[in-house]
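At this stage, I wrote out one protein's amino acid sequence and its backbone structure tokens, and that material follows here:
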Amino acid sequence: MMLLCKYIVVYTDIFFSPTAGEELFKIKKPSLNTITFRMQKKENPHSAVREAERSKEIFQSESRIINTTDTCETEEEDEHYSSASEDYNSSASETQSSPPQKRKDLSAGNIPDAAYIQVACRKRQLARTQGDYIPLDTSHRAPVSQKKACSDTESEDDSDHDTILHFAPKTKTLRQRMAEYIVPKSDGASEDDEIQNMWEEQQLKKAVRLPQGINVDTSLHKSQPMKIKFDPSVSLPPVNLEIVKKRLNTRITSLQDLHRAHQREHEKYTQDIESSKSTIQELERSSNAALNYKFYRAMKTYMESLIDCLNEKLLHINELESAMQMLLQQQAITLLKRRQEDLKNESAYVQLLSRKNGKSTDDSLEDDEKTKQLLEECVARRTCRRQARESFGKSDHHEGMSSDDELSAAEMTDFQKNKDDILQASKKICEDVHADFCNIGNILLKFHQWRQKFPDSYYDAYISLCLPKLLSPLIRIQLIGWNPLENSIDLNEMPWFRAIEEFSDAKNMPQSKRNDDPDQTILPTITEKTILPKITGFVEHVWDPLSTSQTVSLVQLCKNIFEEHSLSKNESSKAKQDLVNSIVSRMKKSIEEDVFIPLYPKSAVEDRISPQSKFQERQFWSAVKLLSNILLWDGIILEDTLHELGLGKLLNRYLLLILLNAPPGPDNVEKCNKVVACLPERWFKELKSRSTLPQLANFSQHLLQSAHTLYKNNCSDETRDLILLLVKVNALHIAEDFIEEYKLEHLKSIVRK
């Protein structure tokens, strides 16, 4: 059955032929195609009757609308276009005077004539043109209701095309999808019906344009969902108590694991909460951002001013350090040259006396006068030193073991004056500087306040690495008058040392925390970067290895620095290695230049009062003194280096030569005893064999030969002393052989000890 959804209003246009003059009628199709739908429904006679009545009512209503429109347009045209179209007004009045006849013609379905249609089109065009502007004369303005009634006819046709056509299927509800899912797939007939219904609904949604406000429930066209059917023939798996128990235990275990995980997470969150609370409290106790910024800004300004001040004073500090270094170096060079000149003159004088003929020329006599004068001055200095030793009660001293470092009164006065001038100038370096920028204690106080208020930013700024370089110029000012070769004030007693030690608080901090605190490295770093280079300069240019007092002071200072300030742990320290290398080089130079032992005839040497014997004795004891000073460095310098310098170059090359040429006796035993006393006992305690060091093999043989000679000469005390020396140098097998050879049972106890 075909259902006509809408009637189409067909407009006709009239065209006049210019040649024939006859009227032609042409049916013009509408711009929009008429949409018709075909629906398959069940035959219902009542619905057909209702559709016919509804179509008739629609046609009558449209006729009335057209009549009303024509009337409105005729009245408006009479008012505005009376002078231009009188014929049309008369036709319009005839048409207006007979509305029943027009309705009759339209209701009968007759086609109007050309004149009527032309008039109607003209009126409609005028009405449309009038609606495009607002007239100036508002006295005969038509009511709004009439205009709305006139425009109803035009908007009626367009309203049919305003409705949006929905061609996509409507989304199914959850209830509909569940109903489709639970329907058994085995029911083929129901599935086919469902597919057919779905297809019909989709076609209706695409074809039918429902009026607005009407919501059709498509679920009404669907069949009612079927209930879920269970197949009783399907058997469930067997269940017993063990299976249930096992599943329950598994479930309990999993829940327990989950509970423990939740507990751990709860503990973690609790700790985070406590940590957050403590952080909040610390932040609340701390100062606000403005005060923090003010502190950092003031600290930055202070640091910039301090650096500028130190940079300005650094040139003056370097000049004073160089002046003091040159003054001490000049004094050391003067003493060294005088000693070498005295040695050369005395050796030449003794050599001159040793000549057999004793003849001399006039030139030699003049030289002898100069040499005698220099020797007299040297003897006078020795006499003064001997008297000074006797006044202190030192009776075991030998000629040659004292340092010839006395200056004349004029030289001493000049040296002291220059030294005082340098020290006075060093005090004036910071005369125009505020105490906060030149006092190490005040400077460290600023950083101490920073460390107390903001420890995180303090340690993040690596202040422990900056302070040694920052304080170095001020420390160097205090060290200008410091001489490590003299018994001057110790480093631990200096003001800068105490201030840094108090800042680091190393004494009050436990050892465990002391190793982790970066501020504990400030003092060792200052010692390594500032103190050790200064000591190295003294070793290279001022230190005299023949001076026992200088060597003892220097050795003690180095041991304190390496042990107390933890520099011994840093074996790779460049400053420490440079210092050790300088010490070794200076001792090698002293052995080569300062040691001189001449050889004279045996007859001249045996005479104890002869100049040759005295000169040789002084040179021997001077070499023994140098050996003692070299071996004082045991524990600081490597043992192999000391073996090479002290035993290889000095003992075997010079001292042993004098001992072998000297006749056995009490003097020889005393010399051997003095040499053994210089050797460190630690060297022999670490020996596992019953033999001595390889470098002491020749010396041990000399002791054995001297013991044989003295025993044969019935010198039992001297023999016992030599055996004791063999035991001290760990030459035990030599001592045992000697005791067994001469059946000296009373000496076996010495060997056992």
In short: The two ends are 142 Å apart (CA to CA). The first helix runs from residue 45 to 80. The chain is about 65% helix and 0% strand. The chain has a mean pLDDT of 76.
